[in-house]
């Protein structure tokens, strides 16, 4: 089976509002199911590609602090 998760997640979220996407993220985190992690990764990857270095550095500092 040739399943492209990036494409599927992108298609499912295309046109969604910020509130819709927030609900998707919060639902995935609340469920805590391992199979939802790739979807969160796709969301992060999309954001990463559009963020500038300042935004990336800020988020990386926050993520680093979360793992301390």
TrEMBL record:
<protein>
    <recommendedName>
        <fullName>Small, acid-soluble spore protein I</fullName>
    </recommendedName>
</protein>
<dbReference type="InterPro" id="IPR017525">
    <property type="entry name" value="SspI"/>
</dbReference>
<keyword id="KW-0749">Sporulation</keyword>
<dbReference type="Pfam" id="PF14098">
    <property type="entry name" value="SSPI"/>
</dbReference>
<comment type="similarity">
    <text>Belongs to the SspI family.</text>
</comment>
<dbReference type="GO" id="GO:0030436">
    <property type="term" value="P:asexual sporulation"/>
</dbReference>
<dbReference type="GO" id="GO:0030435">
    <property type="term" value="P:sporulation resulting in formation of a cellular spore"/>
</dbReference>
């Amino acid at each position: 089976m040739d399943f492209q998760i990036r494409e599927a997640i992108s298609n499912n979220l295309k046109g969604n509002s910020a509130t819709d996407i927030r609900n998707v993220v919060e639902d995935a985190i609340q469920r805590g199911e391992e199979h939802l992690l790739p979807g969160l990764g796709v969301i992060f990857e999309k954001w990463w590609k559009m963020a500038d270095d300042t935004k990336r550095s800020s988020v990386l500092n926050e993520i680093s602090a979360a793992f301390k």
